[in-house]
TrEMBL record:
The keyword Hydrolase does not apply. SMART domains: HTH_LACI. This is LacI family transcriptional regulator. The keyword Transcription regulation applies. Residues 4-58 form the HTH lacI-type domain.
Amino acid sequence: MKRPTMNDIARRAGVTKGAVSFALNNRPGVSAPTRRRILAIAEELGWQPNSAARALSGGTAGAFGLVIDRPARTLGLEPFFMQLISGIQSELITDATPLVFTMAEDQAAEIALYRSWWARRRVDGVFLVDLQAEDARVAVLEELGMPAVVIGAPVGTGRLPAVWSDDAAAVSAVVRYLAGLGHRRLARVGGPARLRHTAIRTAAFDAAVAELGLTGRTVEADYSGERGAAVTRALLAQPARPTAILYDNDVMAVSGLTAAHALGLRVPADVSVVAWDDSALCELVEPPLTALSRDIAAYGAHAARRLREAAGGRAVGDRQDPAPRLTVRDSVAAPPASPAPLVSPASPASPASPVRAVRPAPPA
């Protein structure tokens, strides 16, 4: 079926196209009865504004953008971004604003996309994620005058507003909790070192370990299960291996748990495991993982609200959400009195995968 146009509405209503434009855009120039008649006909015909034409005429695009520069294989497995996007959508859906979502191969490609979107008026603003220590995107967005909201700490964000939570406080809380159980040798499997939030967490981990007189180290990984397992095996093969490991996401933590079991180690009797960003994955393994929990969907919704306000011309400041809280489950305990021997991952004595069966729900 042909898409209805303003000309179709004008013919049906017996008025000019200009009168239809006045009515649909809530501008003066038509009487109240005529406006009501035009709006009723537009609804009957299923008319919707043409966003491209509206943008070319100097109006708004009526959409926001999100570009993520991460490998697709890791993004598809990580619950964080799915929850974040669901939170953004929950806010944007209130006025039917679409989210233009895509991925970029690197930061240069992401910047080129922003320039193209802004020149063509494809979006009214963007969400900026995964801020880097040396990040060229902030200056470009400020130069373009493109509304943007940073999802992350307000460090190196220029004039762009940020929605964030205190990662440093969360890391410190985990280290103190583990120290309180008696752990003296800790390790952290972090995300890519180029990311600003990774640097913030690493600095907080180092500071807390030093303050409490513990031994600790951070090893860089990439959020993938494969890398998380490989780093875990290397850490646990050390003569003075850590008795507790904090992972920067849930996927690496689950893979680390599996790797520990494959080496013949018990969790938490031989090594304790803590995950960042609690998710269903953390509860579907045996033992269920102690994790840092936060309302990621609310985080996304707050960012969407800020971006809508910024795109509407309002002055928008930073918003700090509550810091992640530690949800204690069965993967953490006091450290062992003496280290347990390792077994070969290929040994028949190696425990099976820690993922436990989930009983299907009974039919309704």
